[in-house]
Amino acid sequence: MAGHSKWANIQHRKGRQDEKRGKIWTRLIKEITVAARMGGGDPDANPRLRLAIDKAADANMPKDNVTRAIQRGTGTLDGVNYEEVRYEGYGINGAAIIVDCMTDNRIRTVAEVRHAFSKFGGNMGTEGSVSFMFKHCGQLLYAPGTDEDAVMEAALEAGADDVITDDEGGIEVLTPPNDFANVKAAMEKAGFKAEMAEIIMKPATETVFTGDDAVKMQKLLDALENLDDVQEIYSNAVIEQ
Q1: I want to staple 158 with a disulfide (CB 3.0 to 4.6 A). Which of 171, 183, 196, 232 is the partner?
Q2: Are 100 and 84 in contact (CB under 8 A)?
Q3: Which stretches of the chain score pLDDT less than 50?
């Protein structure tokens, strides 16, 4: 199926993440620690941990850092005990925002998230206020120029839910969360390495922002992104560059 052009927006987001590599490492260490604590330290038996380790490799994180994070998660090395918490809210013009955090102090985290929302024109919502507008799924993104028919054939054979091509030729493969690791591995075996591969909250509909509203919305998202306890942000806002 076809979708509107989003490749430039995705690349822009990836570039912003790459600029914050030091913070990316910190987030990955938290994710690896929590994944190991919840599912054990064997990545072959823990898909969440395998995904986090793969992301760490993509971010050029030293293997010693990964090993220590796993050891902290499994309890063989002392460390901070993080918990996962999700906040929901609204941005400019009511755009939906989900903020996933890992924290050792919920009181601090909720205060910081609420402050960022209120300072930059948004407001916090209650639990479930916007999450119903998103679908939890795996997402693999392939650059324009990739063979659409070959990707579709490989993806559907691997168990993907859907394959979407945007107006620029970028290809998006969607999977059930639990099948993500297997589909990703099958796609790589078939010769297709994704530009981005992650388990996300995908909005059912999107709102395009331009002009002053786009600037305001980006400032809000940046403020949330820059909070130490924030791991991931999902929004139905598409900011035109």
Answers
A1: 183
A2: yes
A3: 1-5
